[in-house]
């Protein structure tokens, strides 16, 4: 499942994702109706680490730049290109799903970026989770202060809780899912927006 | 379901031996020395008599029994197995050399399971030290009696995947007279598994807490289902050891790399109200706190001591997130402070920790514990029973026991010392007061009662 399909699936479960548009040819860009600035991303089932291979171009502010971005990415990978509105937020988090050999599907929540990479500040629960489990997950995070409006960077706890329970529901209803990575999930003052999504099915 | 296993009317020992160093002798000897009241039928082709029991020459001659212990080597165990299955409701094949050794061993296990199913028998093991039930005197474990102790009867049910670690743990806590309601070693777990036993001990009135040593769950989902029912009635503590490597399709994802099996188990425990221990000391320490103590329904702890330094270290442990439990020292109510200062110990520091100094007497402890009972700012009391000063006597055990039983606040007791202090700890234990022989262990017991309290709060809100 490519990123766009993954995000469509998320949207069905009420998950916030940036407005996006898939262009298969340079001509398609005429019909694109997005608010600048936008980002261009290689759209492929096989490329898992897009920015590592030069598959992401940020801060596109005009149609002309969008065309250049399309040509660059399409020229390199011969794939369609996903354009998305850029979103600003306060805190990056990560949400994921794995299939555990003992307990089955489990959902993960953690702080994004360095907190995940270096401190592995993440917590798991077995799916299905209820609202209270989601609340506990937020409490489990060592860096939870960051989710409590540290240095005036406000986030919406309710949005995290609702995202976690929505993902749990999505997996329950789609048991052929092997794994999910939502990374990063950007927290704004009122929303939790999934900027990048990978869903792997068996 | 397992009542005939823990309380059998009759036990056959297949492979009984005249040789005191053999397991086939030790099992019989155990039954004698633990005063097993039921019928005992040794089986050995040589016949004769062992320890006063008439020996049957073959299994076919046996009457029906509740429990059969097979003390023969693996190959011979398989040979007699079907005959045993015809006679016994529960079978414990002690021998190793089965599934843990490879394919052939696995096939032997499969055969035994088939035969057991066919004749409606259940298997504990194989490759197990078996079971020990203090209240009924059933004991199949092979240890040298002069060098180890078996605990007496008590409130803790112990289910373990490792027989040796289980026996060592019971031996070490026998020092404080900790008692158990049952000990069952799953061994290779070809049939009876931890989930069935968790369910059984959840309903067993003799067991007030259940502890488990688990390396791998037979069925994690089923465990969660049963545990979430049992933990609402009584505490369950799990020492989960061992990690599995992960692989498969999802390994390329970030989440796959971050989530070991262990992190998922940790989350699962929290979802179903299981308390986690990380070693054998914590396992029993936590079980005692939970079996004897009251859950703590807030974060504010009052500390009572006669040694200033003990109070200071305890304060650090209670408040520190890094090297401690991240809870709070209670700010005592003015009325409590006045009562303590004016009526009990004018010489003491009435801030928390309440340090009564080396001048403290048994009665001073009584007065301070009484004053704390009505303090609205105190959620639990950690009291140190330190017997090294002249005005403290054995009576302190009774005083603290009284407040533990009749008081309104949860109490955990800390103690420090050697022979005499250990003797007093055993008395606390007999009174079912949770006592710990170090500051850290006492503070961790507080934490565990708080976790239990939080689980209870959560269930009440559901």
Word description of this protein:
The complex is a heterodimer of chains A (202) and B (462). Chain A is of the alpha+beta class. In chain A, 28% of the residues lie in helices and 30% in strands. Chain A has two domains: 19-85, ATP-grasp fold, A domain (Dna Ligase, domain 1); 91-201, D-amino Acid Aminotransferase, Chain A, domain 1, CATH 3.30.470.20. Chain A has five helices and ten strands. In chain A, the strands form two sheets. In chain A, strands 5, 6, 7, 8, 9 and 10 form a six-stranded antiparallel sheet that branches. Chain A starts with a helix and ends with a strand. Chain B is an alpha/beta fold. Chain B folds into three domains: 1-129, 3-Layer(aba) Sandwich (Rossmann fold); 143-292, Rossmann fold, CATH 3.40.50.261; 294-461, 3-Layer(aba) Sandwich (Rossmann fold), CATH 3.40.50. A seven-stranded mixed sheet of chain B has the order 9-8-11-10-12-13-14, sandwiched between helices. In chain B, strands 15, 16, 17, 18, 19 and 20 form a six-stranded parallel sheet that branches. The interface between A and B is medium-sized, with 35 and 29 residues.
Briefly summarize what is shown:
The complex is a heterodimer of chains A (202) and B (462). By secondary structure, chain A is α+β, with helices and mostly antiparallel strands. Chain A is built from 5 helices and 10 strands, in the order αβββαβββαβααβββ.
Which descriptors would you attach to this protein?
heterodimer, A: 202 residues, alpha+beta, Dna Ligase, domain 1, D-amino Acid Aminotransferase, Chain A, domain 1, six-stranded antiparallel beta sheet, four-stranded antiparallel beta sheet, 30% strand, B: 462 residues, alpha/beta, Rossmann fold, seven-stranded mixed beta sheet, six-stranded parallel beta sheet, 16 helices, 18% strand
Number of helical stretches of at least 4 residues of chain B: 16
Are there runs of chain A of 5+ residues with pLDDT below 50, and where? none
Q: What is the count of distinct domains of chain A?
A: 2
Per CATH, which architecture of the largest domain in chain A?
2-Layer Sandwich
> Quick one: biggest sheet of chain A?
6 strands, antiparallel
So what's the overall shape of chain A? globular
Structural class of chain A: alpha+beta
Assembly of the depicted chains? heterodimer
Spatial order of strands in the largest sheet of chain B: 9-8-11-10-12-13-14
How many strand segments of chain B?
A: 20
Work out the radius of gyration of chain A.
17 Å
N- and C-termini, Cα separation of chain A: 11 Å
Low-confidence stretches of chain B: 247-251
Give the CATH topology of the largest domain in chain B.
Rossmann fold
